[in-house]
Design goal:
Length: 612
């Protein structure tokens, strides 16, 4: 091995604890050499990746990569939270003892990077100078160059973020070893992959993937799982899978900030990147802070609940991203953006990329096109309808590329949170929007968030797959303790945010078409919510929250049939009473659920009995 001390000296890596960490895992994994990475290395690393065949050019200033065909998504069943205290076990966090998982991962990693370069990525998951910066610094060690390039886009990368720590030991230790992808038994009884967050030691050990959340350890493993555990252990903050936007009223000069959680396929990224509808664009502007993670805390001076996006980029799902659903996303990955596409369809001759939903139909001339596995589309038989792009294909770009990025997205202060919204995908029962002004009822609503499962999968028509706070795959400790911590953090704010539940997906029971147009029009119910918080509208009170009246919604320039509005601005009492039974069963799984949550449940159930 090359002289580690000399390499770290030359890179300016001075933190003695980081240097010890690097040496420990370089020795364990058998890496042939190390390289300390800064963001300024991006252009060189891109060229090296192209030369090595790890990336291909996708037009001017854009790149394409293809992962191993069995390594295309997060693997929740192999993802574990490990600590030394079994009280941290939850229903969803796949808890295991640290004493079991650390030796297991070390055995997997031993010698697994032989002959490879170990890249050392010092990173920060917060705007520099933010009050939560003490929990945001980390170092990822990886044996894969494309992981480095994604991390440069998704986090702030540089030795300065770990050299100047008040406590040189206060960084997250993150180790990613790819392993032999073709011989890991993915999805079998002999599966060798493990993705472990040793939360009480602030150590992340991932083995057996080079893709996405399994490999970009600053993103989910640190930004959500470790961040959530740190927030709870410190009693300082929440780390949530929330989008974060600003809504600016040009007429009054006021800017509101809204964050919220949405289960998969419920419109979170499209909402985060939306533009105002044409009819309202002269007055309102929507600014983007983030589409996936928000850290929330109470500012000690102002008493306001504050939020920031710890990420520095967007790791977006390509499928169905187009000029109608999300024009800002498309513009953020245009030529010159240095965006990286993964597992989309690709034409190496022209550098074009395509995915299902990018255009109404795929390119008519298939010559030169390869599907996401690298197979020529011209060789397909006429009846082959397999997707060109993998359904979890991605684009990675920096926040600065997003056209409607908020001007203060990287300011250390964060932004005050006015509203917290939750949104699932349900064909009935859930109205367009219902506002909740009580903290416990708001948290209760978030804990019972879900999206409708299929009848065939669940066997119970209308039952939701619950995804508490949209955080189900990222819970780092017990759900009851999580609810207590959420109540305590938000409850400490001098000005409480308003909560709401939104649903853009109600369908006509006869022909199944959507009753609300969605996309850019979703700004309208959010404006009503902020007017409600300001006391400018009153709404209509129901057992499950305050609903807008038709007159209160600003529907200028929008033609929605009266019968559709009536349906999406009302509740189905029988359906809701069925739901209350499902909710009780769901919440009963969790130990130490705060009494305030059960009181909220009983209050909503009792009010439903009285509902007309």
């Amino acid at each position: 091995m090359a002289d580690l001390e000399a390499v770290m000296d030359e890179a300016g890596l001075t933190n003695p604890r980081v240097r010890e960490f690097v040496k420990e895992y370089a020795e364990l994994t058998g890496a042939a050499r190390i390289e300390v990475v800064n963001a300024s290395d991006d252009a060189r690393l891109l060229e090296e990746a192209v030369e090595a065949g790890e990336l291909q050019r996708a037009g001017e200033g854009r790149y394409y990569s293809r992962s191993y065909h069995k390594d295309t998504a997060r693997s929740e069943e192999r993802t574990v939270v490990a600590t030394s205290d079994e009280k941290d076990r939850g229903v969803y966090n796949n808890w295991r003892p640290a004493s079991e998982m650390k030796p297991l991962l070390h055995d997997r990693m031993r010698g697994a990077s032989e002959g490879k370069t170990m890249y050392v990525i010092p990173y920060l998951m917060a705007p520099a100078g933010n009050v939560l910066e003490p929990w945001a610094a980390g170092v990822e060690l990886t044996d894969t160059r494309t992981v480095v390039l994604h991390m440069i886009r998704m986090s702030r990368v540089g030795v300065q973020f770990v050299n100047d720590l008040d406590d040189p030991d206060s960084f997250v230790r993150a180790v990613h070893v790819t392993g032999d992808l073709e011989h890991l038994g993915q999805g079998t009884a002999d599966d060798q992959r493990w993705f472990v967050t040793v939360a009480d030691e602030r150590t992340i050990l991932h083995y057996g993937s080079s893709y996405g959340g399994n490999a970009l350890l600053g993103k989910i493993a640190h930004g959500l799982r470790q961040g959530a555990y740190d927030g709870w252990a410190s009693r300082k903050f929440l780390a949530e899978q929330y989008m974060l936007i600003g809504i600016h009223d040009k007429q009054t000069g006021r800017t509101w900030h809204v964050c919220g959680g949405f289960p998969s396929a419920s419109g979170k990224t499209n909402l985060a990147m939306m533009a105002a509808p044409d009819a309202l664009g002269d007055r309102y502007h929507v600014s983007f802070y983030g589409d996936d993670i928000a850290w929330l805390w109470v500012d000690e001076e102002s008493g306001r609940l504050m939020g920031m996006n710890p990420e520095y980029g967007v790791f977006g799902v390509a499928k169905d991203t187009n000029e109608v659903t999300n024009p800002n996303a498309l513009h953020s990955i245009g030529e010159g953006s240095q965006a990286i596409f993964t597992n989309v369809a690709y034409n190496p001759t022209t550098g074009e990329v395509w995915w299902e939903g990018k255009t109404p139909r795929p390119p008519a001339d298939v010559r030169g096109w390869l599907d996401w596995t690298g197979s020529p589309l011209a060789d397909r038989k006429d009846d082959d309808t397999a997707a060109w792009a993998h359904p979890n294909s991605r684009f990675t770009t920096t926040l600065a590329n997003v056209p409607n990025i908020a001007p203060d997205y990287d300011e250390p202060a964060g932004v005050p949170i006015d509203a917290i919204i939750f949104g699932g995908r349900t064909r009935d029962r859930e109205p367009l929007i219902r506002a909740i002004t009580d903290l416990a009822e708001g948290v209760y609503d978030g804990l019972t968030l879900g999206a409708e499962a299929t009848f065939a999968a669940e066997g119970v028509d209308g039952q939701l797959r619950y995804d508490p706070m949209s955080n189900r795959p990222f819970m780092a400790y017990g759900e009851g303790d999580y609810a207590r911590h959420y109540l305590d953090v938000v409850g400490a704010a001098a000005e409480q945010p308003i909560f709401a539940h939104v649903n853009w997906f109600q369908r006509d029971p006869e022909d199944g078409h959507f009753l609300w147009p969605g996309y850019r029009e979703n700004l309208r119910p959010l404006l009503w919510l902020l007017q409600l918080k300001a006391g400018e509208v009153q709404g209509r009170r129901t057992a499950v929250g305050i609903l807008p009246t038709e007159e209160e919604l600003d529907l200028r320039g929008l033609d929605v049939p009266a019968e559709h509005l009536e349906r999406i601005l009302s509740i189905d009492k029988a359906r809701w009473q069925q739901e209350m039974g499902f909710r009780e069963e769901h919440l009963s799984q969790f130990e130490r659920m705060p009494e305030e949550i059960w009181e909220a449940h009983r209050r909503v159930a009792a009010d439903l009995e009285q509902e007309d």
